[in-house]
């Protein structure tokens, strides 16, 4: 997921590290997961992101920020899921042209607020993702799975249509204690019980946690989606201090 750069990091000074692409996976009609081997990677928490720098042969350089999709504790392996922005400068190259064996530079991990730690957080978790905003939430789901955590999770995933779904096979995995709800905003599968439309308070009431359960809520997606979903959660009585948001949008 491409995201707006947000200051903040855990630990000391961050350095640019060489990252070699070792695997590419199709995730949807216009998104790919890129798996990098990053020697010297210090490790990350679920929900953090990295800066990616590309440098052309003539010396021109550009960078973007992307959420990490892999679980914490994956060693020197970092997964980024990138959705193509047709008029973008970086995402079309990463999605269509970057080949296994190619090098980029990564700097990170960045971010200390929008994170989930299985060793210290025991309250219920509500994940609300719009489109590619699912990526850092998927890192939390994978981290929970890898840690064998019993913390109850609920995921509300809003996407345009079935062809846009990310992590199809991964989300089919049976994770005890993880409830998953899919909302389609433009086109739904045949006989889907909910008609297409934007996320509503009824959706969050039916698929989320009651406010008196005091869940930590993680909301990620476009600016409009995040503002709407977070506003609905507050209106439903959730403590604003327990709502953590991360948003993405165009760069430049």
From TrEMBL:
UniProt cross-references to InterPro entries, sorted A to Z: Cbr1-like_FAD-bd_dom, FAD-bd_FR_type, FNR_nucleotide-bd, MRET, Riboflavin_synthase-like_b-brl
Cofactor or coenzyme needed: FAD
Residue intervals of the FAD-binding FR-type domain: 14-116
SUPFAM superfamilies in UniProt: Ferredoxin reductase-like, C-terminal NADP-linked domain (SSF52343), Riboflavin synthase domain-like (SSF63380)
Keywords per UniProt: 2Fe-2S, Iron, Iron-sulfur, Metal-binding
Source organism, top-level taxon: Bacteria
Record-linked CDD domains: FNR_iron_sulfur_binding_3 (cd06217)
Keyword Endoplasmic reticulum carried by entry: no
UniProt-recorded name of the protein: Oxidoreductase
The organism of origin for this protein: Streptomyces tendae
């Amino acid at each position: 997921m491409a995201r707006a750069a947000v200051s903040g990091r855990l630990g000391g000074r961050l350095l640019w590290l060489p990252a070699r692409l070792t695997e590419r996976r199709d995730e949807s009609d216009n998104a790919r997961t890129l798996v990098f081997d990053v020697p010297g990677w210090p490790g990350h928490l679920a929900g953090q992101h990295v800066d990616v720098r590309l440098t052309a042969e003539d010396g021109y350089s550009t960078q973007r920020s992307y959420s990490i999709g892999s679980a914490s504790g994956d060693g020197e392996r970092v997964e980024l899921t990138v959705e193509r922005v047709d008029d973008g400068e970086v995402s079309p190259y990463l999605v269509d042209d970057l080949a296994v064996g190619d090098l980029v530079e990564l700097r990170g991990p960045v971010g200390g607020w929008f994170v989930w730690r299985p060793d210290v957080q025991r309250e219920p978790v509500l994940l609300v993702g719009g489109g590619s905003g699912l990526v850092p939430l998927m890192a939390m789901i994978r981290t929970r799975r890898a840690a064998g955590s019993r913390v109850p999770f609920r995921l509300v995933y809003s996407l345009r249509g079935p062809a846009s779904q990310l992590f199809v096979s991964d989300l089919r995995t049976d994770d005890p204690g993880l409830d998953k709800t899919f909302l389609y905003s433009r086109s739904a599968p045949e006989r889907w019980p909910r008609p297409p439309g934007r996320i509503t308070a009824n959706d969050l009431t039916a698929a989320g946690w009651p406010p008196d359960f005091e869940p930590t809520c993680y909301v990620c997606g476009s600016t409009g989606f995040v503002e709407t979903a977070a506003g609905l959660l507050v209106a439903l009585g959730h403590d604003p201090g327990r709502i953590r948001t991360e948003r993405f949008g165009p760069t430049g």
